Amino acid sequence: MSDTPPRNFHAIHITRDKCIGCVHCLSACPTRAIRVEGGKARIIDQLCIDCAECLRVCPHDAIHSHMTSFASLEAFDYKVAIPSTVLYGQFGPTVVPNEILSALRRVGFDEVYDLSSICELNCAATEEYLNEHPSPRPYITSTCPVVVRLIQRRYPTLCAQILPIEPPREIAAKILRTILPKSLGIPVERIGIIHITPCPAKMVSINSPATLAKSYLDGAISIRDIFPQILQALRKSEEDALMRHLFPETLFSGIGMGWPLSGGETRGLKSHRAVAVSGIRDTMRVLDEVEGGLLQDIDLLECTVCPDGCVGGPLGVENRFLAKSRVMELVAAAGEHAVVDQKDVSRLYHRNFLSFDHPVSPTEPRPLDKDAVKAIRKAKLRERVFAELPLKDCGVCGAPDCRTLADDIARGYARLEDCPFVASKPERTTDASRKKAKGGPKTGPKKKEKP
């Protein structure tokens, strides 16, 4: 397992040398975590949820994800890959999952494990949990780590509604941590278990888990990074007539195969009403409704911030619509029959083997000031400043919108003159501008915000 992680690990980073301050990322960020200062974008750690919306829209390749390097796996004696089922949709209609798993072994992994059966197991455990816990409603799935972080930061009252069952990637790694050291005779710390994923936020859930003392995974490699090696291995394997039979024992679950698609997590539920939503903006709209007391007639809410689900992850290679079509073909080919024994699910479920180590807790708020009296003064100042601004939300000031600029000014991180529309009208004197001489927004140097 990974060592004790940093509390606020982030997978998304900006390469300043490439950034030209074009503000594409500024407007894309759903949590207003980006500022442009001195012509360069900067991420505020306390606000970032690693959704990678900024990475998607950057036209200059200035934003990158910090993932596990393949070279770092040499630190382990035995290397295990757990690929997301998204990987099966990346190679077109002629390549079957068995070939992809075999190619991963050729790339350098000692063992490769299909995740679809564990996805089905998770679905069955979810059904059992919902049967035993009639409230609150709706429960919210925890598979997407960005959704978990979003709830921790923006919807803290919904933390108790996150379904307390670990996602399939962690369940699979936990099972392997249990059986491999005994069967191989290798110390557990010498076994490296790696998730292959299209999502940089999976790296966050490994290094800074919200529900575990430590992740059972040692790292995450992006599909984009390992794709060329898999492709090369697949081409070499064309001459091997036995390639399709290297994993005869693998039973692919049609229920689990569909997990990377929006609605895939809930498709296997038999007796509960579920709704699936994908995309960060739509997810936030639905969570707004849940926070407001709506949707209580829904048993389970499946939220994924990537469009169309994990198949739309930013670190995939194939066009997401083609990948989605391919995964749907594989789901149809695998069928709807269960490959997991419900008795096994019940045993693991009642032993709490599938449960969180601890519940999801809200992230500490970002107060205007630690001193309550000063915080009240700053809140009043923020409203006065906001009334002074033009409400154009243009981003020219370096903040994503006027409301955020007013907040930055109240905190001392920005100045009223950063707004070009205010700065171009010096004759305009209002209550907000007069307050500058009495502890209001200052015209001197900005206070540097803590990283």
Task: Give a description of the structure.
- Mean pLDDT is 90; it is low at 241-248 and 428-439.
- Helix 4 packs across helix 6, helix 4 crosses helix 12 (342-350) and helix 13 (372-388) crosses helix 14 (402-411).
- With 451 residues, this protein is of the alpha/beta class.
- Strand 5 (78-83), helix 3 (97-107) and strand 6 form a beta-alpha-beta unit.
- The longest helix has 17 residues, at 116-132.
- The protein has a 4-stranded parallel sheet, with helices on both faces. A 3-stranded parallel sheet has the order 7-11-10, covered by helices on one side.
- It has helices at residues 24-28, 53-57, 97-107, 116-132, 145-154, 168-184, 201-207, 223-237, 254-257, 280-291, 320-334, 342-350, 372-388, 402-411, 420-423, 431-434, and strands at residues 12-14, 34-37, 40-43, 63-65, 78-83, 111-112, 139-140, 191-197, 219-222, 274-278, 300-304.
- It has 16 helices and 11 strands.
- The protein has 3 domains: 12-65, Alpha-Beta Plaits (2-Layer Sandwich), CATH 3.30.70; 70-350, no CATH class; 372-438, Orthogonal Bundle (3-methyladenine DNA Glycosylase II, Chain A, domain 3), CATH 1.10.15.40.
Count all strands and give the number.
11
- Give the integer mean of the pLDDT values: 90
Biggest sheet, strands in spatial order?
6-5-8-9
| Beta-strand percent range | 5-15%
Radius of gyration: 24 Å
* Overall helicity: 25-40%
